[in-house]
Design a protein that fits this description.
The complex is a heterodimer of chains A (about 375) and B (about 325). Chain A contains 15 helices and 2 strands. With about 375 residues, chain A is mostly helical. A two-stranded antiparallel sheet of chain A has the order 1-2. In chain A, strand 1 and strand 2 form a beta hairpin. In chain A, about 50% of the residues are buried. In chain B, about 35% of the residues lie in helices and about 10% in strands. Chain B is built from 13 helices and 11 strands. In chain B, strand 4, helix 3 and strand 5 form a beta-alpha-beta unit. In chain B, helix 6 packs antiparallel against helix 7. Chain B is elongated and about 60 Å long. Classes of the chains: A mainly alpha (about 375), B alpha/beta (about 325). Chains A and B meet through helix 4, helix 5, helix 7 and helix 8 of A and helix 1 and helix 9 of B.
Chain lengths: ~375, ~325
């Protein structure tokens, strides 16, 4: 808790380096965004072109482009190639990007709302709730699917949401939700669900590969239904959070000041945390608990381009997507044909880069 | 990273090790404390034992998987067998009457289901000692269990999960020696060898069997080289698509399975998956096994347990791999 308190005091509360004018922001955001999007595009194309099946680049491009109306470029290519590109690689790359973007966005939002640099997307029990939901399904040996989606992500999502609602309900004091109470309630509920999960695992007769996958995370069975499942949560959440960039700037400085400026602080916090948690829960339910993305990406963006949420949020989304697509590419190719859990890659590659930035910035970004 | 619990990961990792020892099964077995068990140790063998263990063969000294010499003074009467395969072996070699307690996953033969069940993954020294065992068989030691029990004068045999059929034979014969049922153990392994030979004989002219994918879980964990399952497939001359990973229990992805194009897919999933859902996986409609309708569900309890029923597993798999040779 000492670290947490110090974080609240020194970390996020330092003033942003001057409110930029809207025109100034536009001037600085667009080149960065263009750069980020170009990077994302390159990473995505490489990820699309690499895999156990050696499919030539031009065939890959033709198969993807043939999905555009009026373009019949894939004629004569084997159905296996077409299925591998369109049914396996495309959804996998898109899902990794979507989950990376969601986690990075949620991390930036949590850090802003809580004014705490240690805040991360799983802070209020989303991950442990998801693991518990999955464990209950595994232990009861249920095998049901719903609209092409197996019961497992649905149970993980339900577990994550129950956890968030309980944490928020407990932490509520009248009309307000104090950050410290929320964090403590989150830690407590997470410990409880972890205990129940561990107990169920020890008592269950089933082997634990499924739980293992949920805990470490990965995209090795990514498919369109999973992607379609996350989009309705991730996109509206992104729109809502991006629209609150300026208000997050004020909130992350001083709630009192935000109140004076006419912001309904509690309602805004609830809205932002709700959106971030919902999107995280949807992401965790299909990808498992992937660590470090939600913590490292927003901080890296902050160190590179400063704490203004109007830059921080869109850049975190773009770089979060690029980072996780790249990590997933390594996860499936380093030890081919077997997979390495992507969470190991995000830590292994992300942390040294993060430490380098930390060393270079020496707190200057805050 | 406060949300990631090391214990959770540890338990999952331990469970990965457990599968080779037969962690499969259905239903949650309650932990029984069995306070009513009479702890009295009788020197004379139980009257109903088919062939009483000869006392004159004892003391017996064997070396366990940790390289420790374990000395058993008298034929054990109260064995605690903390893995399903141990229980199946002991019953098969006529030492079933000496089994006093089993692990939570042991459900075969049915006589084992009525015995007190203990947790093999978080074993309690006190919980074991109170049942007054004269021999404890473990495949997993979370740290110090063996020493703690030996300090109480209870001999403990640590026998690692076999990674080959030969190691299963070795374990059966070792358990025969240590329980005084050496002859029966040799009969059992001889019968098993005969069963395996009968299968192999029908495959002598097979040069290269079908490519197979052995699925352990819907997240595409499978059995690779160095696993017990892989050795079974070697006996069947099948080409395990995960053999080249060099890992005992690797995780593959959808694309790898498509590219390796298995001719037969064996589903030993726990929790179970349906053949229909496997065939409907993205891009899998082009896999030979799916096209030829050769996706089969097997009972993980039989296929994954390195015990006497491995011949049954071998015969089941042989029927799926070579339907024209095995009816």
């Amino acid at each position: 808790m000492n670290i947490l308190r110090r974080g609240v005091a020194a970390g996020m509360a330092a003033p942003a380096s001057g409110e930029l004018s809207l025109a100034g922001l536009r001037r600085s955001l667009w080149p960065r965004l263009a750069l980020g999007l170009a990077l994302l595009l390159i990473v995505a194309l490489v990820a699309l072109a690499v895999g156990p099946a050696s499919i030539p680049l031009d065939a890959t491009a033709r198969i993807v482009l043939s999905r555009l109306p009026g373009l019949e470029l894939a004629d004569g290519l084997s159905t296996t190639w077409r299925d591998i590109i369109w049914e396996v690689r495309v959804p996998r790359v898109l899902l990794a990007g979507l989950v990376g973007a969601t986690l990075a966005m949620a991390g930036a939002t949590y850090q802003g709302v809580f004014r705490n640099p240690l805040a991360e997307p799983y802070l209020i029990g989303v991950a442990t709730g998801a693991a518990l939901g999955s464990t209950i399904v595994v232990v009861s040996s249920l095998s049901v699917s719903w609209h092409g989606l197996s019961l497992l992500p649905l149970a993980a999502f339900a577990g994550a949401m129950v956890s968030v609602v309980v944490v928020y309900g407990v932490a509520r004091v009248g009309n307000t939700v104090p950050a410290t109470t929320l964090i403590l309630a989150g830690v407590a509920v997470a410990s409880l669900s972890t205990a129940v999960t561990s107990f169920l695992m020890l008592r269950s007769t089933t082997h634990m590969f499924t739980i293992f996958s949920v805990v470490l995370g990965g995209f090795n069975t990514a498919a369109w239904p999973k992607l379609i499942w996350v989009v309705p949560y991730a996109i509206p959440a992104a729109v809502l959070i991006l629209a609150h960039g300026r208000i997050l700037n004020v909130l992350s400085l001083d709630e009192e000041q935000a109140r004076h400026l006419g912001v309904d602080v509690e309602r805004t916090k609830l809205l932002l945390l709700g959106a971030a948690s919902l999107a995280t829960a949807a992401a965790v339910s299909v990808s498992g608990t992937i660590g470090f993305v939600g913590l490292i990406v927003p901080h890296a963006v902050r160190m590179l381009w400063g704490p203004d949420h109007r830059t921080l949020l869109p850049m975190s989304i773009v770089l979060g997507a690029a980072f996780l697509i790249l990590a997933d590419l390594l996860a499936r190719t380093i030890d081919q044909p077997s997979e390495i859990p992507v969470g190991i890659i995000t830590a292994f590659c992300g942390v040294p880069f993060f430490l380098y930035l930390l060393r270079r910035a020496r707190g200057a970004a805050y | 990273m406060s949300a990631r619990n090391p214990l959770l990961i540890l338990v999952a990792v331990l469970a990965l090790a457990a599968i080779a020892c037969g962690g499969g099964g259905d239903g949650v077995a309650p932990q029984t404390t069995a306070a009513t068990e009479t702890p009295a140790v009788t020197i004379a063998p139980a009257a109903e034992t088919p062939s009483p263990a000869p006392v004159e063969l004892f003391p017996v000294t064997v070396t366990d998987s940790n390289g420790r010499e374990v000395r058993v003074e008298l034929p054990p009467q109260r064995i605690m067998a903390l893995a399903p395969a141990f229980v199946e072996i002991l019953f098969a070699i006529g030492a079933g009457n000496s089994v006093a307690a089993v692990d939570n996953f042991s459900d075969y033969p049915s006589a084992a289901a009525d015995l007190p069940h203990l947790d093999a993954f978080s074993p309690s020294v006190e919980g074991i000692a109170v049942l007054n065992p004269d021999l404890v068989l473990i495949f997993f030691d979370p740290g110090g269990l063996q020493e703690a029990l030996e300090r109480l004068g209870i001999p403990v045999l640590f026998l690692a999960s076999p990674s080959s059929v030969q190691e299963v034979f070795d374990q059966i014969e070792l358990l025969g020696r240590v329980t005084g049922h050496e002859d029966e153990a040799e009969t059992v392994t001889a019968e098993m060898r005969d069963g395996i030979d009968a299968v192999s004989e029908k495959l002598t002219d097979v040069d290269q069997g079908p490519r197979i994918f052995h699925e352990l879980d819907a997240m595409l964990f499978t059995a690779g080289s160095g696993s017990f399952e892989n050795d079974i497939y070697n006996l069947l001359k099948a080409q395990n698509i995960a053999a080249e990973t060099g890992l005992a229990y690797p995780q593959l992805n959808l694309e790898t399975v498509i590219v390796k194009d298995p001719e037969v897919i064996i589903l030993a999933d726990d929790p179970p998956v349906s053949v229909t859902s496997v065939k409907a996986r993205p891009g899998w409609s082009n896999i030979s096994a799916v096209i030829d309708d050769r996706v089969h569900v097997v009972d993980p309890d039989i296929v994954q347990r390195p015990g006497p029923r491995l011949v049954e597993a071998l015969e089941t798999l042989a029927r799926f791999l070579y339907p024209e040779r095995f009816q």
